[in-house]
Design a protein that fits this description.
The complex is a heterodimer of chains A (160) and B (357). Chain A is an alpha/beta fold and 160 residues long. Chain A has 6 helices and 8 strands, in the order βααβββββααβααβ. In chain A, strands 2, 3, 4, 5, 6 and 7 form a 6-stranded mixed beta sheet that branches. In chain A, strands 1-8 form a two-stranded parallel sheet. Chain B has 357 residues and is mainly alpha-helical. Classes of the chains: A alpha/beta (160), B mainly alpha (357). At the A-B interface, helix 5 and helix 6 of A face helix 3, helix 8, helix 9 and helix 13 of B.
């Protein structure tokens, strides 16, 4: 399989495909009703934004909205962090087969650093962030799927 | 020969009629308005919310006066006796718009502390770390079932027309049973054991159990106490020395977040309909905040976390610095949830947002 660039729509879709391919595993973890919006801030200041729409036991849609106003999907929650932290998390998952004790989504978001959670809908506010906690096991399993996705990182120099 | 009571004789008469081919069948014409229902199932299956269609989807502001367990939407024969206990009939006292959704989610996310925790991956830990984990688990074993006992105290008063709430609260009671079970198991699983109970916890538990009515108790328990515990579960996952504790706290966190979600939307529903009772909610939260703050300084509550955060009893002050963010996070999220519910306590909150480390 050709390595996929992280981050990219194709890379997140590969995670979604792995989720879909394991219905029994994700059925046991329970349904999800959330739009997770990874926001990745690169050292040069540019930002990449992805929208992962989870419904039931699947990630139904992956897009790259132009900005936060363009995010569509129920209960949008942004997970915001710098590129280095995103890269380290994905590398850690790939190295260990799943996030180790210090690279789980909860570990990285609890102190609001290196990742920070924010609800996009001001009326739902904390209630939508609480959804991230309600679906913790599923979301962790989803990102742990990175262990099976050949990955090339965005800042890796292209081969000559 | 035994003489049977008139009630039993009546059954014999009915059986005799049926043997003669004389059936009643009047029930077949019951509830014509409720006949012919065809709900549409959600993608994941037929949910409690999916079947709230037509007359079955009408949730009355006041529960039925018949006082029985007859299901909402059924025809209730006039001779149906009241059971005399379903005296919470004001929907606003118990309702939350997400109750049915949270019940479905609870059912889908059930887990087993026997099967789903990788107990075979327990590791021998340094003595101070094991003692800290065991004390933390002792504390959680002690407090977790308050969120089972408190709903159980009120559940049998709730009118059966609000079955979505009853279903959700039943799921919560089972969640808390599992929490009590899993923390007790972890305390006993790795060569340690249960350690010291917490008098300050009991003070807070008393305030919850003695709340004068369901909503007041729910505000205190679902939003304040469980909100704080939710952050503690997240912190437990953060501090976990092995994948065993990591798994336990992650699974408990999911359950607790559902309970907080119910409490938040319940308070929102209640305050919209009973704005005149806002002061009662403020008053119980005044008490609760102080009690939970005092609990946070109890040695058997805070010190195990400092040991885990610092990496040992010799590095507890370092642990204090590493957990400094936690109190702020707890209070901020608590105040945000109240704001969503329509209650602003930013200026009234009885405890500080920041604690000097």
């Amino acid at each position: 399989m050709t390595p996929l660039r992280f981050p990219s729509v194709e890379w997140f879709r590969a995670l979604a495909a792995r989720m879909t391919a394991q219905p029994e595993k994700y059925r046991r973890l329970g349904a999800v009703d959330l739009t997770l919006v990874p926001r990745i801030v690169f050292p040069d200041g540019h930002v990449e934004l992805y929208s992962l729409v989870f419904a039931g036991q699947a990630c139904r849609a992956v897009t790259a909205p132009a900005d936060l106003a363009a995010v569509q999907g129920p209960h949008p929650v942004v997970i915001d962090g710098e590129w280095g932290a995103w890269r380290e998390m994905v590398e850690n998952v790939r190295q260990h087969g799943a996030a180790d004790l210090h690279h789980t989504l909860n570990y990285l978001t609890l102190p609001d650093w290196p990742f920070r959670l924010e609800a996009l809908d001001p009326e739902a506010g904390q209630l939508d962030v609480d959804r991230f906690y309600r679906y913790a096991a599923t979301l962790q399993a989803f990102f742990d799927e990175a262990a099976g996705v050949p990955t090339v990182f965005a800042d890796t120099p292209a081969a000559a | 020969m035994t003489a049977f009571s008139p009630k039993v004789e009546e059954v014999f008469d009915r059986l005799a009629m049926m043997r003669d081919g004389k059936f009643d069948l009047s029930w077949m014409n019951a509830n014509p308005a409720g006949w012919g229902t065809r709900p549409t199932a959600s993608p994941g299956g037929l949910t409690v919310a999916d079947i709230n269609v037509g007359p079955y989807g009408v949730i009355p502001e006041r529960g039925s006066a018949h006082g029985s367990m007859a299901p909402r939407g059924a025809e209730v024969p006039p001779e149906t006796p009241s059971l005399g206990c379903y005296d919470i009939a004001d929907k606003a006292i118990v309702w939350a718009d997400n109750a049915a959704e949270l019940y479905e989610e609870a059912v889908a996310r059930q887990w087993s502390s026997t099967r789903d925790v990788p107990w075979d991956r327990l590791e021998e830990l340094p003595d101070d770390i094991e003692r800290a984990v065991c004390q933390l688990c002792t504390q959680l074993t002690e407090v977790e079932f308050i969120a089972g006992d408190m709903p159980a105290k009120w559940l049998w008063h709730i009118n059966h027309d609000f079955h979505e709430v009853k279903l959700f609260l039943a799921s919560q009671i089972f969640d808390e049973a599992r929490h009590m079970e899993v923390f007790r198991k972890r305390a006993l699983a790795n060569g340690g054991g249960l350690m010291q109970a917490s008098p300050n916890s009991e003070e807070l538990l008393r305030v919850i159990l003695e709340a004068p009515d369901y909503t007041v108790g729910s505000s205190l328990m679902h939003i304040l106490a469980e909100g704080f515990v939710l952050t503690l579960f997240r912190h437990g996952e953060f501090l976990a020395p092995t994948v065993v504790e990591k798994t336990i706290f992650r699974l408990c966190m999911q359950d607790e977040a559902r309970h907080v979600g119910y409490g938040t939307l319940h308070l929102k529903h209640f305050l919209k309909r009973h704005p005149e009772r806002v002061e009662e909610i403020h008053a119980i939260l005044d008490k609760g905040e102080e009690a939970i703050f005092a609990l946070g300084a109890e040695p058997q509550n805070i010190e195990p976390r400092l040991i885990l955060a610092g990496g040992g009893v010799e590095r507890m002050q370092e642990g204090m610095l590493r957990t400094g963010f936690l109190h702020r996070k707890q209070v901020q999220e608590y105040l945000h949830r109240l704001k969503v519910a329509g209650l602003d306590r930013t200026t009234r909150c009885r405890i500080p947002l920041e604690i000097a480390q």
